[in-house]
Amino acid sequence: MEEHNVSSVPMLYDAILKQSEEIGFQMSSDKAVGALLKVLVASKPGGNFLELGTGTGLALAWIAEGMDDKATLTSIDNDPKAIAIAKKYFEEDPRIAIHCEDAAKWIAGYQGKAFDLIFADTWAGKYTHLDDVLMRIKPGGFYVVDDMHKQPNWPEGHEEKVKALYNTLEHTSSMQLVRLDWATGLVVAVKI
User: Fold this and answer.
1) What is the C-alpha to C-alpha distance for residues 44 and 41, in angstroms, rounded to an integer?
2) Is residue 157 packed enough to be buried (19+ CB in 10 Å), middle (13-18) or exposed (0-12)?
3) Residue 1: is it exposed, middle or buried by C-beta count within 10 angstroms (0-12/13-18/19+)?
4) Predicted TM-score of the model (pTM)
5) Do the Cβ atoms of 186 and 33 come closer than 8 Å?
6) How far separated are the first and last CA of the chain, in Å rounded?
């Protein structure tokens, strides 16, 4: 994959990356994806954001840098070993709530206010529970998914799931979207 020019990597990024490597975590978000998330989040002052798939917090580092003091972020993951790293760096940030639980259950039970941006970096909210997630985005809010280019670690049959997601999003009348042949492959959609 080609390297993208990404300036101003978040201050915590290298420390989180090092700890991610130490525990063998290999599902980190691409730097270019993080830089895009930072810009999108910065466009929503005081925004309410959701990250599905915290991992160790690498994308979270970018999102946090884009947030202003009035913004809030909820981040969900079910891997206690990975999320412990994210909590180490972000648990004291009053803007950020990190939950170690099943994203599908969290989505199904969520009753709070709509989101200005949802970054779906796990199956729930991307390949399952898509309708539930899309209805929780404010008009003008963003829905972002990555890892849409074929990856070496994809299980058999996953390519069909990616094609089905593209097809569903392209036929969802409440969303305008662009497919980006960039970084790990992205979809950026806006609710209309």
Assistant:
1) 5
2) exposed
3) exposed
4) 0.91
5) yes
6) 33
pLDDT digits (tens, 9 = 90+) for 29-38: 778 999 999 9
pLDDT digits (tens, 9 = 90+) for 111-152: 999 999 999 999 999 999 999 999 999 999 999 999 888 887
Tokens matching residue 49:
């954001």
